[in-house]
Design brief:
This protein has 3 domains: about 5-125, 3-Layer(aba) Sandwich (Cobalt-precorrin-4 Transmethylase, domain 1); about 130-235, Methyltransferase, Cobalt-precorrin-4 Transmethylase, Domain 2 (2-Layer Sandwich), CATH 3.30.950.10; about 240-285, no CATH class. It has helices spanning about 35-40, 50-60, 75-85, 110-115, 130-135, 155-165, 180-190, 215-220, 250-260, 265-275, 280-285; strands at about 20, 45-50, 65-70, 90-95, 120-125, 145-150, 170-175, 195-200, 210-215, 230-235. By secondary structure, the chain is an alpha/beta fold. The protein starts with 17 loop residues before the first strand and ends with a helix.
Length: about 290
């Protein structure tokens, strides 16, 4: 294990026995940081999702280095190889096709194994489509839920769509062009056609596009248009207050049940308020 002071990791040069998670541009190559270039140029090995895509970046910045594939199909085998590399005091950079590695890309197991084996992991941050999109949307961005690509079908997909429906903060989704129409129709079914969403595509590229409207209007916009590349979709949070989602009649019945069984109005109100995370005054007023 490398025992050098961790502050030195903030420098430009890679260190022995360290795995670097390196963010790369999501479109515009000018977003590549000088630190990222230096790390890729000087590590002992670059592990990347698709060697063809990474070589384009390397060629653009005149980077010549050892390169190996690391993707969802070979990650188990390659994780062992990279761990051996690091244990031999070699430095490795992990990159994805675009943006920050591990965000909807393989690598979690590799990082976990590095942590288990007390190996250094250092992140060299870079662009991220999700963050770029939500900060451009005009929706609340101090809190958000990132779901990435939804499961293609089944109960888990239904569960997440229901979660988006009730979510009071923004939700970030990724989707491919040929599944976009299906997702938009499901969002309408679960969230209603008047829910606001923001669609971003070709981020940081020449034909970057942002569409901000309600679901009904966006479905019409995309009805006769075909696109390439992945979409980033921001679903605005549901502005219905929690108190509006409560079944007051059911709560009132429970209140009188407790009173009829010996509790005072005050104690019954306090009990139900704590149970439902509501104010005692709100429960108390149901008795009127």
């Amino acid at each position: 294990m490398n025992n050098k002071n961790t502050l030195s990791h903030r420098g430009q040069e890679p260190e022995n026995g360290v795995l670097y998670i390196v963010g790369t541009p999501i479109g515009n190559l000018n977003d590549m940081s000088p630190r990222a270039i230096n790390i890729l140029r000087n590590v002992d090995l670059i592990a990347c999702e698709d060697t063809r895509n990474t070589k384009k970046i390397m060629n653009n910045f005149c980077i010549k280095n050892n390169i190996t594939s690391f993707n969802e199909y070979n990650s188990n085998t390659k994780t062992k190889e990279i761990l051996a590399y690091l244990n031999n005091y070699k430095s490795v950079a992990l990159v994805s096709d675009a943006g920050m590695p591990l965000i909807c890309d393989p690598g979690e197991e590799l990082i976990a194994k590095c942590r288990e084996n007390k190996l250094e992991v250092v992140c060299v941050p870079g662009p991220c489509a999700a963050i770029t999109a939500i900060t451009s949307s005009g929706f609340h961005s101090s809190k958000f839920l990132f779901l990435g690509f939804l499961p293609r079908k089944g109960k888990e997909r239904e569960k997440l769509l229901n979660q988006i429906k009730k979510n009071t903060i923004s939700t970030i989704l990724y989707e491919s062009p040929h599944r976009l129409h299906k997702l938009l129709k499901e969002l309408k079914e679960y969230c209603g056609g008047d829910r606001k969403i923001h669609i971003a595509r070709e981020l940081t590229k020449k034909f970057e596009e942002h569409i901000n409207s309600d679901i009904d209007n966006i479905i019409n916009i995309f009805e006769e248009r075909e696109y390439k590349g992945e979409f980033c979709i921001i679903v605005k949070g549901n502005n219905i207050k929690k108190i509006d989602l409560i079944d007051k009649n059911k709560l009132r019945e429970e209140l009188f049940f407790l009173i009829n069984n010996g509790l005072s109005l005050s104690k019954a109100s306090k009990y139900l308020a704590n149970k439902n995370n509501l104010t005692k005054k709100f429960i108390y007023n149901l008795s009127e």
